[in-house]
Design goal:
Length: 283
């Protein structure tokens, strides 16, 4: 059985994503930090990892862009999960009983309308959504709640007092990558996506990035993402993370990469995989 690492506590959205990325028959390993995921994959403690890379409302998870550059683990799949926050409580607790609700600061912010409508309830920041549910179950507090996934509520035997707690219903999605040490074999052409990183040979040359990205446009390859991150060793220079809709083995992709070498000092393919689809949480 594969062991897949994720950041957070059992029942976290990343825990759910791990099953979509690596299948039902896995064991998930809870980690405190994102870097611990990569360390576990590197040492063999875990066979793979599930990492959030981008949220549709909050934007990029920059730490994981930096860690992908540092560790160079391969991306083997992606999934976009619809994030639906639920208000979890001990069995029997009513809304009128609540004085405090715990969750990750982002989850609290995404549910700000609920707190505006219920000013008697204090929003309390915590380390993790699922961790808040776990701690609530441990305290058995009858005047507290937690904002987490329905999966977390199930794991920790909590009641769901209210579902769809988020301000913007149906628009909050997180993209997750599946990573492992070795690349996956993806032979299909249709629906393929490739993610890579590169450094420009001369960051300060006029049109340097334009020329680099033009290598793909010339060949009709659609870029779906271009993210720049500060180079850890070169002040005012950048690492570019680029995703495009093509299999790296396609002739047009190979031609684009061959030309790209003229404008870069380093290129690295993080992975070619089947383009992910939007999924609704079912765990």
């Amino acid at each position: 059985m594969k062991k897949i690492a994720f950041q957070g506590r059992k029942g976290a959205y990343s825990d759910c994503a791990a099953h979509y990325l690596f299948g039902e028959d896995i064991e998930t390993l809870s980690m405190d930090t994102f870097e611990e995921i990569y360390q576990a994959v590197e040492t063999g403690e875990a066979d793979g990892g599930a990492i959030p890379i981008e949220n549709s409302t909050a934007g990029s998870i920059e730490a994981n862009y930096d860690l992908l550059y540092k560790w160079r683990h391969r991306i083997v799949g992606e999934v976009m999960l619809r994030i639906e926050h639920t208000l979890c409580v001990m069995p029997g607790v009513k809304l009128a009983d609540l004085k405090r609700v715990y969750s990750h600061p982002q989850a609290l912010a995404q549910c700000s309308k609920f707190f505006a409508e219920n000013p008697q309830i204090k929003a309390v920041p915590a380390f993790d959504t699922a961790g808040s549910a776990e701690e609530l179950a441990g305290r058995k507090a009858m005047d507290e709640g937690a904002i987490a996934s329905a999966y977390a509520a199930k794991i920790y035997n909590l009641d769901i007092l209210k579902a769809g707690l988020e301000n913007l219903k149906g628009t909050n999605f997180t993209r997750f990558y599946g990573i492992q040490k070795s690349p996956a074999t993806f032979d299909g052409i249709e629906g393929a996506k490739t993610t890579m990183l590169f450094e420009l040979a001369d960051d300060h040359a006029v049109g340097a990035l334009y020329n680099a990205l033009g290598c793909f446009a010339k060949r009709g390859i659609n870029l779906t993402r271009c993210e720049s991150r500060p180079h850890p060793d070169k002040p005012w220079e950048y690492i570019f993370h680029v995703s495009f809709e093509a299999n790296v083995n396609e002739d047009r992709a190979q031609a684009a990469l061959a030309e790209l070498k003229n404008y870069t000092s380093q290129m690295y393919i993080l992975g070619t995989f089947k383009k992910g689809i939007v999924e609704t949480l079912k765990y």
